[in-house]
Amino acid sequence: MKKLLLLSAFLIFACSYGQGEQLYADGTATDQDGNSFEWISYGSQDWAIENTEVVNYRDGTEIPQVTDNTEWESLTTGAWCYYENDETKGKLYNWYAVMGIHDAIETTPNKEFAPEGWHVPTDAEWTALEEYLIANEYNYDGTTTGNKIAKAMASNTGWNTSTGTGEIGNDQSLNNSSGFNAFPEGYRNGLGSFNLEGYNAFFWSSTENDTGLAWNRSLSSYYSDLYRLFVGFKLFGFSVRFVRDASTASTENNQSNTITIYPNPTTSILTIKGKKAFDIKVYDMTGRKIMTHTGNTIDMSNLSPATYIIKAFDNSNNEEFTYKVIKD
């Protein structure tokens, strides 16, 4: 069974999310440009669940925006662009930006692309995420063998329609059970052309594969797996996610336990331990609010057996705690 016990408790700050608020995010962080992004704990890793938006390295040095195709294809240093140079679409980065390569002098120290406490995931960290999702039954068929996690990682909208079993584009309402929320931004190739918006999401790793290549991951509307690609030319423009540094990452064993919710699973009455009265909201997994209550118990006996998201707001401390709960 998927781990659906208490996920976490976290303080939610009032802010706006460019890629859509995830009801079961474990927290928020801020990059060097002041952009907030949400993250989720997957085992021992904390992953950003929104694509990177930075336009400066950690020390404030600007990352050049390159729109011209000829200039893009000759780059050997960091750059970014909007897909199709349209600022309403996602940001794409070449691998040189990801690695902080900001000039052509080999002896110059590289810049830091990610904010303090975060980094661009290695190839091994992508593999660890894949293995965690498979082991916790995020395969579309609920099995724990084989790589069939694409639907669980993909956003609920934006993908080209497909019909194959387990494919991302087939019934997109079933996507994103993991909360990773990968959106099909497409990519920019080495000649500066833009391709595959709506069909593919591509994400860099920080791991070099060859002189001109680096490992990356891809999701496709026509496939059911998270695909590991070695043909990622460093001058391609891909999306980027952050993962928290291991020294500061949370785990299921050290997350906040200031309040407890029980029993979980439940058949009827759910109790939040303590004497405080919480403003409680219950959501289904599509994000639809289905119940509200004030107190430290809530009666779920009339709800259908399913998984629900519980949000409990503590007015006295201005804290909101979020749980994933099974109703048997």
Which word captures the global form? Answer: globular
- In the residues, how many domains can be counted? 2
Rounded mean pLDDT score: 86
Tell me about the largest β-sheet.
4 strands, antiparallel
> What pattern of helices and strands is seen along the backbone?
EEEHEEHEHHEEEEEEEEEEEEE
- Helix % is under 10%
Low-confidence stretches: 1-21, 249-257
Report the C-alpha radius of gyration, rounded: 21 Å
Strand order of the largest sheet: 16-15-18-19
Structural class designation? mainly beta
**Proportion of residues in β-strands:** 25-35%
Tally of extended strands?
Answer: 19
Q: If helices are DSSP runs of H or I spanning 4 or more residues, what is the number of helices?
A: 4
Distance between the termini: 13 Å
Plain-language structure description:
It contains four helices and 19 strands. It has 328 residues and is mostly beta strands. The longest helix is centred in the middle third of the chain and has 13 residues, at 123-135. Residues 1-21 and 249-257 have low confidence and may be disordered.
Topology:
Elements: E1 27-30, E2 36-42, E3 45-48, H1 69-73, E4 80-82, E5 91-93, H2 95-98, E6 118-119, H3 123-135, H4 150-153, E7 187-188, E8 194-195, E9 200-210, E10 213-220, E11 227-229, E12 243-244, E13 261-262, E14 269-272, E15 278-283, E16 289-295, E17 297-299, E18 306-314, E19 319-327
Antiparallel strand pairs: 1-2, 2-3, 4-5, 6-12, 7-8, 9-10, 10-11, 13-14, 14-17, 15-16, 15-18, 18-19
Outline:
This protein has 328 residues and is mainly β. The chain has helices at 69-73, 95-98, 123-135, 150-153, and strands spanning 27-30, 36-42, 45-48, 80-82, 91-93, 118-119, 187-188, 194-195, 200-210, 213-220, 227-229, 243-244, 261-262, 269-272, 278-283, 289-295, 297-299, 306-314, 319-327.
